[in-house]
Amino acid sequence: SQELEQSPQSLIVQEGKNLTINCTSSKTLYGLYWYKQKYGEGLIFLMMLQKGGEEKSHEKITAKLDEKKQQSSLHITASQPSHAGIYLCGADAQGAQKLVFGQGTRLTINP
Amino acid sequence: DAGVIQSPRHEVTEMGQEVTLRCKPISGHNSLFWYRQTMMRGLELLIYFNNNVPIDDSGMPEDRFSAKMPNASFSTLKIQPSEPRDSAVYFCASSLPGRSYNEQFFGPGTRLTVL
Fold it and tell me: Which residues contact B8 (CB under 8 A, 6 or more apart)?
């Protein structure tokens, strides 16, 4: 079965700094999804990547899927307190309409 | 749109009691997913429905868990009897048909505590 490993597990950065979160898959990724979760709330869809080398941006968040389609990175530029939360990557389970999720990366932004 | 609605938001019960969690998906979404989230195991898919029909329930822990979707606007997840290890946050999510099926919209979750 497909497994996703996220790194780091937690991250504390100063407001205004850039940061990167990685998601590595044990198998080729056919669809990679990034979600954000705030404490006590559900997940919010951020972006989906499908093609090797694809890159998407939303405001100050950029996600990339590497050419070999086994790793994705999420990059936040000039972090703000509103970026704090848990970021989860999810992958299409091949041949099935469902997602497998990584363990999440807890991001804290210090003012 | 109100988004995915879940009730109750918090549930505290005693071991052995029956627990029913409820979900109303976004209107027009034909796929519905039930997840469980714990610190130890992360976010796990329990079961999902397409057009009110259960498609994959391989994530349901055991026979104590059951889920139904009697119509397009309502689903329940029932635990009977409940055990302390069932304590977790349970999420319901829904999605549109077609290629957007995994762009899922999550509800706020139900935090279940079994004493």
Answer: B21, B22, B110
Find which of B58, B89, B104 to mutate to test the A interface (most A CBs within 10 Å of its CB).
B104
In tens, the pLDDT along A41-97 reads 889 999 999 888 899 998 899 999 987 879 999 999 999 999 999 999 999 876 667
Question: Which pLDDT belongs to residue A43?
Answer: 93
Distance, CA of A3 to CA of A24 (rounded, Å)? 8
Task: For residues A109 and A15, give the distance between their C-alpha atoms in angstroms, rounded to a whole number.
Answer: 6
Distance from CA of B113 to the nearest CA of A (A): 14
Question: Pairing between strand B110-114 and B10-13?
Answer: parallel
| A43-49 vs A55-58, strand pairing mode | unpaired
Nearest CA to CA, how far is B14 from chain A (Å)?
A: 22
Within 8 A of A33 by CB-CB distance, chain B residues are 102-103
- Between vectors from CA B10 to CA B4 and to CA B11, what angle results, nearest 5°? 120
Residues B6, B92: Cα–Cα separation, whole Å: 7
